[in-house]
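The instructor's notes for this session suggest beginning with a concrete chain rather than abstract definitions. Hand out the sequence below and ask the class to guess, before any prediction is shown, which regions might be ordered.
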Amino acid sequence: MTERDEALRDGNRQPPGIRAQVAEQFARYRAESKRGSRFDECGRPTETYYDELVDGRGRVRSMWSELSADFVDQGTGGISRIDHRVRRQIEDDGVTYTEVGLGDDTATPRPWRLDPIPLLVSADDWTRLETGLVQRSLVLDEVLTDVYGPRRLLSSGLLPPQVVFGSTGYVRAAHGIMIPGTHQLFLHACDISRWSDGRFRVLADWAQAPSGAGYALADRRVVAEAIPEAFEHAGPRPLTPFARAMRLMLEEAAPELADGAEPVVVVLSPGSHSETAFDQAYLAQMLGFPLVESADLVVRDGALWMRSLGSLERVDVVLRRVDAEFSDPLDLRPDSRLGVVGLVEVLRRGAVTVVNTLGSGLLESPALSAFLPRIARSILGEDLQLDGTPAYWGGDDTERAHLVSHVGDLVIRSAVDGSTIFGPSLAAAERDELAARIEAEQWKWVGQEPAEFSVAPAVEDEAGIAPVPVGMRLFSLARRGGYTAMSGGLGQQRMRLEPTRSVIKVAAKDIWVRAAPATAPAVGAEAPHEERLRRAVPVVEAISSPRVLNDLFWMGRYSERAESVVRLLAATHDVYQDYRYRPWLDGAEALPILMRALSVTTGTVAPESVLPSARAAALVRVHSPIEATTPGPAVDPESAAAPVGSPEPAAARPSPAPTRDPDASAAEVSARDDGDSGAAESDTDDADTESPWERAGTSALARALRTTGTTAERGAEPVAAGEPPIARTRQTQGQFTHRAMDSSGEGGATRRAVAGASAEGFHYLAALTGNRELPGSLSHAVDRYGAAARAVRDQLSGDTWMIVGAVDRALAEFRSANSEQENALSAVHSLTLAALLSLSGIGAESLVRDTGWYVTDIGKRVERGLALTSLFNSALTQAKSAEVERVVAEAVLAATESAVSYRRRHRGSAHVAALAGLLLFDPGNPRSLVYQLDRLEADFQALPGGSGASRSQRLLADAQRMLRRVDPADLEQTDDDGVRTELVELLEGVHLRLRKLSESFETTKLAAPASIQPLWGNTRMVG
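After discussion, reveal the predicted structure:
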């Protein structure tokens, strides 16, 4: 610790400005705390309130005084810097949350909101919380065991049958299903708050599929890295032992029928579009178990199996994050697409363990909490140490009378499905109507006193700290000797919707338990002797289901697509800058050629004014690597909203189907399987008269031009105020014109316009960089990469998210800035390329060469081959003047990262044969076409069952033979129109085979199973 830190901690040598800020912050905090904290959940005034920071006399509590210099004594500037570091770390770690149910089917994950100031818990408070939580877990475990077993609580009258059988959480099909071990409740979570009397009370129990443990672990990592000095000084109890204990107990939960001594554990998720998808994936990553979805699992021969590439692997334990009713479409909810057909039957046979067990959602019933005190006294012979919120059940006459008479003061919950009504927010007529319903339905309703919350310091924008209502979610885990609690949990920061009301959670807080390890029970790093595994823990191969592999395949494609696009954008922008103000220089005609290459390789449509003449463009046939190489059903180019360019989200993606290229003839579409191809297939349709941008997808034209604010017939037009930032740039009618000197260098000035060196050209480059909605653009590829990566988060290195976050920030800043500035365009290209190279480095140097890695590399090599053949075909197959050819060649070499190697070999001379030798035929150049084909051959051979006889491998061998049959010198030959026909034929042939190879690989090896079909009748749920 520095001298300044020590002085600040002592509080005696703070700079005067900081001291004034701190004094002002404390004064404002105390005033706001007194004014706005004396209210409960429904806005009713309470007698007093509890402040976690200061006591009743306004003095800082002892546990906070030690950390005041780290947080509250920082002043507004210091607090703001801490908050910025935490937010940046959240982005770097990719911690997200998806709000669902808001009417937006395309909801995207948003950065997780974590307040940087932790919620402190003293040693004494934690002892009470831990003891009460463990006791409550034991009581609920007894209830769960009894309800689905002997039902003594029901027969003795301790628990009314209506509370059990009337709840949607009760699963009739789960009766008699017992998981191995001494406890049926595996994981339990409690929402807890401190009330005005200083006591903790339970607000809700979570036992269906408790969420938040992954967020708690991620929050701790973020805070520890963002504010390490404060974390080291406080020394809170660690959370990782809880994760180690959970892993151990999941392995111990394997059924006795499990084969041998190698339990296979999976985490079952509803998908990457789930509200808490990050929580599920991060917990699976911390546990080291594969994250699976329903498409990854299948029931065969009375057991549960995990799909792998060409095989099945038996599953022994499932950590369930799918609600019970959706877990099995056969025995439970028939319209579910999240479950596994036959799972309940496998559970009955004892062939698999599912935790939490089916039916555990019953423990979340609000009516059950009213009976827990007397159940605890009956079973344990002691009172509950953690009281619940005072509740009144409508099935009891006395309690119903209180409920009805105070319906306007209570929180009313349904004992059937848990739906909530806030009594104080009802009008008089609504209260009377609700009271009548309660009198009529009685047992179906429960009234609870509105919850109270203590207040704690939190960051409030740029104003420093402010008092906010807080609660916490704590977790307990079943072990052989009882239950153990996570030493901390997920703090909950709430917000007042109105000046006197606080009902919604808006941010998380890390919970720091200030307990000495020697004086507080803890989860040890190693399990006690009696809980040690009796068998060796196996090395389990990472999951390689078709769903996971498909996402990894498209991660490879999108990462390479983004890199190839940004390289070509940067190279084209360099040429654009050379000729924008100096169009008289030789080689200016290279710019529209490169613009056309961008249009073709990205599958987008550029304004005609930036392209070569239609006649020159129509002389060669070019194909986009993006246009028809993505999963999904075939798209009608006349009706599609955009050119085919990206896969659907993993959770909703249909089985891949071949996409017909609108340029391909019937003979091309049915590429031969026998591998005896000879020369490339020729085109036999009438599309030869179309220009490349016309074939790129007519529907993309409107989208591209809306983004750039131009039309093909006219120059730039005004853009509506609601358009994206990239479209709100200064528009200039028509092209820029420049005054140029004549050949003598004197006198008469002439005007000369270069296609592409215009406002339209710049806007096209900007759109291809920043427009997220334009398939083929850099931003679109980055977004799709992120979506695919989130679907397989548990498979990836944590560094991946730091890089993805950096790319997202760079592109977001470009979109929000004045994108007319060319330096901003160059800067975002450089930053994005650097980040993409880092991603490539992680894949090359940090990932294990397993099935997933080879599939990712296949995607990468396919995409690089398609991009290279498309670029070569659109830029170099038409003979041009020597200077134009030189400029185009240099741009192509820059876009393929081969400029240095070419100069060393050929001293800068530009010859197509030499370019082809390096970029097409050189097996030692990692950017060459033959290198991509050789890597594809090795990757296919490394896959399980790689025999060389698959259709994909036959198409690959066909492409390799085409390259071997060509002499690079022959590629210089041109026909009467200046077209290098041999080169065109080679490039089109290889390009077509790569596309068909990709389609074949997806539809065979990576195809997900067909959607679950209803076995009978209508699947619509009634009631």
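Then share the key points. The first strand starts at residue 96 and ends at 97. DSSP finds 32 helices and 24 strands in the chain.
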